[in-house]
Write a structure and sequence with these properties.
single chain, 229 residues, mainly alpha, elongated
Length: 229
Amino acid sequence: MKFCFGAVGFLILFLALFDSPLATAKQLVLCDEIGALKFDDARAGRPVPIEDYDPFDVSTACAEALIADPENPRFHFQLGIAMAMLLEADKALEHLEIAASKNYDAAQKFLKRFDEKMVEPMVGPSSQPDENFSAALDECDLIGAMPTDVRRVGQPVPYEEYNAKAVEVACRNALETDSDNPRFHFQLGMALLGAGNVNEALRHLSFAADENYVAARLALAKFYEKLGK
Protein backbone atom coordinates (compact mmCIF):
# COMPACT_ATOMS: atom_id res chain seq x y z
CA MET A 1 0.00 0.00 0.00
CA LYS A 2 2.80 2.40 0.82
CA PHE A 3 4.38 1.79 -2.59
CA CYS A 4 1.10 2.42 -4.40
CA PHE A 5 0.44 5.56 -2.40
CA GLY A 6 3.95 6.77 -3.14
CA ALA A 7 3.53 6.15 -6.86
CA VAL A 8 0.22 7.97 -6.93
CA GLY A 9 1.67 10.80 -4.91
CA PHE A 10 4.60 11.11 -7.30
CA LEU A 11 2.21 11.17 -10.26
CA ILE A 12 0.16 13.94 -8.67
CA LEU A 13 3.33 15.93 -7.96
CA PHE A 14 4.54 15.41 -11.54
CA LEU A 15 1.24 16.63 -13.00
CA ALA A 16 1.21 19.61 -10.64
CA LEU A 17 4.72 20.63 -11.66
CA PHE A 18 3.92 20.39 -15.37
CA ASP A 19 0.39 21.70 -15.15
CA SER A 20 1.22 25.17 -16.48
CA PRO A 21 3.14 24.10 -19.60
CA LEU A 22 0.48 21.57 -20.49
CA ALA A 23 -2.25 24.10 -19.96
CA THR A 24 -0.37 26.60 -22.12
CA ALA A 25 -0.04 24.04 -24.91
CA LYS A 26 -3.77 23.34 -24.79
CA GLN A 27 -4.50 27.06 -24.94
CA LEU A 28 -2.40 27.60 -28.08
CA VAL A 29 -4.85 29.29 -30.44
CA LEU A 30 -5.13 28.53 -34.13
CA CYS A 31 -3.46 31.85 -35.02
CA ASP A 32 -0.30 30.63 -33.27
CA GLU A 33 -0.54 27.08 -34.57
CA ILE A 34 -0.74 28.00 -38.27
CA GLY A 35 0.72 31.51 -38.30
CA ALA A 36 4.04 31.11 -36.49
CA LEU A 37 7.04 32.15 -38.60
CA LYS A 38 10.64 31.05 -38.30
CA PHE A 39 12.08 34.57 -38.05
CA ASP A 40 9.79 35.46 -35.13
CA ASP A 41 11.70 34.62 -31.96
CA ALA A 42 8.62 35.43 -29.85
CA ARG A 43 6.34 32.97 -31.66
CA ALA A 44 4.20 30.72 -29.48
CA GLY A 45 3.85 27.82 -31.90
CA ARG A 46 6.29 25.87 -34.00
CA PRO A 47 7.31 27.71 -37.19
CA VAL A 48 5.21 26.76 -40.19
CA PRO A 49 7.17 25.78 -43.33
CA ILE A 50 6.57 28.24 -46.15
CA GLU A 51 5.13 25.50 -48.36
CA ASP A 52 2.48 24.80 -45.71
CA TYR A 53 1.73 28.43 -44.86
CA ASP A 54 -1.78 29.48 -45.88
CA PRO A 55 -2.37 33.25 -45.51
CA PHE A 56 -6.12 32.85 -46.09
CA ASP A 57 -6.49 30.58 -43.07
CA VAL A 58 -3.96 32.56 -41.00
CA SER A 59 -5.73 35.86 -41.62
CA THR A 60 -9.06 34.37 -40.53
CA ALA A 61 -7.61 32.68 -37.45
CA CYS A 62 -5.66 35.73 -36.29
CA ALA A 63 -8.57 38.11 -36.86
CA GLU A 64 -10.64 35.84 -34.61
CA ALA A 65 -7.84 35.69 -32.05
CA LEU A 66 -7.74 39.48 -31.92
CA ILE A 67 -11.43 39.62 -31.09
CA ALA A 68 -10.68 37.78 -27.86
CA ASP A 69 -7.32 39.50 -27.24
CA PRO A 70 -7.22 42.78 -29.21
CA GLU A 71 -4.00 44.04 -27.62
CA ASN A 72 -1.89 40.97 -28.36
CA PRO A 73 1.04 42.17 -30.53
CA ARG A 74 1.84 38.64 -31.73
CA PHE A 75 -1.63 38.24 -33.20
CA HIS A 76 -1.29 41.65 -34.88
CA PHE A 77 2.09 40.66 -36.31
CA GLN A 78 0.91 37.30 -37.63
CA LEU A 79 -2.21 38.87 -39.12
CA GLY A 80 -0.07 41.61 -40.70
CA ILE A 81 2.19 39.09 -42.40
CA ALA A 82 -0.79 37.13 -43.72
CA MET A 83 -2.39 40.31 -45.10
CA ALA A 84 0.91 41.25 -46.74
CA MET A 85 0.99 37.88 -48.52
CA LEU A 86 -2.59 38.49 -49.65
CA LEU A 87 -1.47 41.85 -51.08
CA GLU A 88 -3.63 43.82 -48.65
CA ALA A 89 -0.87 46.36 -48.05
CA ASP A 90 -2.86 48.89 -46.02
CA LYS A 91 -4.24 46.29 -43.62
CA ALA A 92 -0.86 44.60 -43.37
CA LEU A 93 0.91 47.81 -42.40
CA GLU A 94 -1.83 48.72 -39.93
CA HIS A 95 -1.37 45.51 -37.95
CA LEU A 96 2.42 45.42 -38.28
CA GLU A 97 2.65 48.99 -37.00
CA ILE A 98 0.41 48.15 -34.03
CA ALA A 99 2.69 45.21 -33.19
CA ALA A 100 5.80 47.36 -33.63
CA SER A 101 4.36 50.08 -31.38
CA LYS A 102 4.05 47.44 -28.68
CA ASN A 103 7.78 46.67 -29.07
CA TYR A 104 7.21 43.39 -30.89
CA ASP A 105 10.69 42.73 -32.22
CA ALA A 106 9.79 40.77 -35.37
CA ALA A 107 7.36 43.50 -36.46
CA GLN A 108 9.95 46.22 -35.90
CA LYS A 109 12.56 44.32 -37.90
CA PHE A 110 10.09 43.59 -40.68
CA LEU A 111 9.05 47.24 -40.99
CA LYS A 112 12.67 48.38 -40.88
CA ARG A 113 13.54 46.03 -43.72
CA PHE A 114 10.45 47.19 -45.61
CA ASP A 115 11.52 50.83 -45.25
CA GLU A 116 15.02 49.98 -46.46
CA LYS A 117 13.60 48.27 -49.54
CA MET A 118 11.41 51.26 -50.29
CA VAL A 119 14.36 53.66 -50.39
CA GLU A 120 16.61 51.42 -52.51
CA PRO A 121 17.18 52.84 -56.00
CA MET A 122 14.98 51.34 -58.66
CA VAL A 123 17.96 51.00 -61.00
CA GLY A 124 21.59 50.22 -60.44
CA PRO A 125 23.85 47.23 -59.89
CA SER A 126 22.11 46.09 -56.72
CA SER A 127 18.71 45.85 -58.42
CA GLN A 128 19.89 43.90 -61.47
CA PRO A 129 19.25 40.14 -61.54
CA ASP A 130 22.29 37.89 -61.45
CA GLU A 131 23.07 36.84 -65.04
CA ASN A 132 24.12 33.30 -64.09
CA PHE A 133 20.95 32.83 -62.04
CA SER A 134 18.74 34.11 -64.86
CA ALA A 135 20.45 31.83 -67.37
CA ALA A 136 19.64 28.81 -65.18
CA LEU A 137 15.94 29.62 -64.97
CA ASP A 138 13.35 27.81 -67.02
CA GLU A 139 11.84 30.05 -69.69
CA CYS A 140 8.48 29.75 -67.93
CA ASP A 141 9.98 31.32 -64.79
CA LEU A 142 12.06 33.83 -66.72
CA ILE A 143 9.20 35.40 -68.69
CA GLY A 144 6.19 34.32 -66.62
CA ALA A 145 7.01 35.46 -63.07
CA MET A 146 4.17 37.54 -61.66
CA PRO A 147 4.62 40.45 -59.21
CA THR A 148 1.79 39.02 -57.09
CA ASP A 149 3.55 35.68 -56.62
CA VAL A 150 5.63 35.60 -53.44
CA ARG A 151 7.01 32.18 -54.41
CA ARG A 152 8.23 33.16 -57.86
CA VAL A 153 11.82 32.29 -58.68
CA GLY A 154 12.33 34.75 -61.53
CA GLN A 155 12.30 38.53 -61.47
CA PRO A 156 8.70 39.80 -61.77
CA VAL A 157 7.91 40.77 -65.34
CA PRO A 158 6.48 44.31 -65.73
CA TYR A 159 2.96 44.41 -67.12
CA GLU A 160 4.01 46.27 -70.24
CA GLU A 161 6.63 43.60 -71.05
CA TYR A 162 4.42 40.59 -70.31
CA ASN A 163 3.66 38.42 -73.37
CA ALA A 164 0.87 35.98 -72.53
CA LYS A 165 1.29 33.90 -75.69
CA ALA A 166 5.03 33.47 -75.16
CA VAL A 167 4.48 32.55 -71.50
CA GLU A 168 1.85 30.01 -72.51
CA VAL A 169 4.26 28.26 -74.88
CA ALA A 170 7.13 28.34 -72.36
CA CYS A 171 5.05 27.01 -69.47
CA ARG A 172 3.47 24.25 -71.53
CA ASN A 173 6.99 23.15 -72.41
CA ALA A 174 8.02 23.35 -68.74
CA LEU A 175 5.10 21.15 -67.69
CA GLU A 176 6.14 18.47 -70.16
CA THR A 177 9.18 17.75 -67.99
CA ASP A 178 7.71 18.75 -64.60
CA SER A 179 4.00 18.11 -64.83
CA ASP A 180 3.23 18.50 -61.12
CA ASN A 181 5.01 21.82 -60.56
CA PRO A 182 2.36 24.16 -59.09
CA ARG A 183 4.36 27.27 -60.03
CA PHE A 184 4.35 26.28 -63.71
CA HIS A 185 0.61 25.55 -63.51
CA PHE A 186 0.02 28.96 -61.93
CA GLN A 187 2.09 30.83 -64.50
CA LEU A 188 0.44 28.95 -67.36
CA GLY A 189 -2.98 29.65 -65.85
CA MET A 190 -2.27 33.37 -65.66
CA ALA A 191 -1.02 33.41 -69.25
CA LEU A 192 -4.17 31.61 -70.41
CA LEU A 193 -6.31 34.13 -68.55
CA GLY A 194 -4.43 36.89 -70.33
CA ALA A 195 -5.07 35.19 -73.66
CA GLY A 196 -8.77 34.78 -72.88
CA ASN A 197 -8.73 30.98 -72.49
CA VAL A 198 -10.63 31.06 -69.22
CA ASN A 199 -11.74 27.43 -68.83
CA GLU A 200 -8.28 25.96 -69.28
CA ALA A 201 -6.80 28.76 -67.17
CA LEU A 202 -9.07 27.84 -64.26
CA ARG A 203 -8.02 24.20 -64.48
CA HIS A 204 -4.34 25.08 -64.12
CA LEU A 205 -4.96 27.66 -61.40
CA SER A 206 -7.12 25.17 -59.51
CA PHE A 207 -4.37 22.56 -59.70
CA ALA A 208 -1.88 25.03 -58.24
CA ALA A 209 -4.37 26.19 -55.60
CA ASP A 210 -5.00 22.59 -54.52
CA GLU A 211 -1.24 22.36 -53.95
CA ASN A 212 -1.54 25.36 -51.61
CA TYR A 213 0.12 27.73 -54.08
CA VAL A 214 -0.87 31.03 -52.51
CA ALA A 215 -0.79 33.18 -55.65
CA ALA A 216 -3.12 30.74 -57.42
CA ARG A 217 -5.60 30.82 -54.55
CA LEU A 218 -5.46 34.60 -54.58
CA ALA A 219 -5.98 34.72 -58.36
CA LEU A 220 -9.00 32.42 -58.12
CA ALA A 221 -10.47 34.44 -55.27
CA LYS A 222 -10.11 37.65 -57.27
CA PHE A 223 -11.57 36.00 -60.37
CA TYR A 224 -14.67 34.72 -58.59
CA GLU A 225 -15.05 37.99 -56.73
CA LYS A 226 -15.30 39.79 -60.07
CA LEU A 227 -17.91 37.29 -61.19
CA GLY A 228 -19.92 38.15 -58.11
CA LYS A 229 -19.76 34.68 -56.63
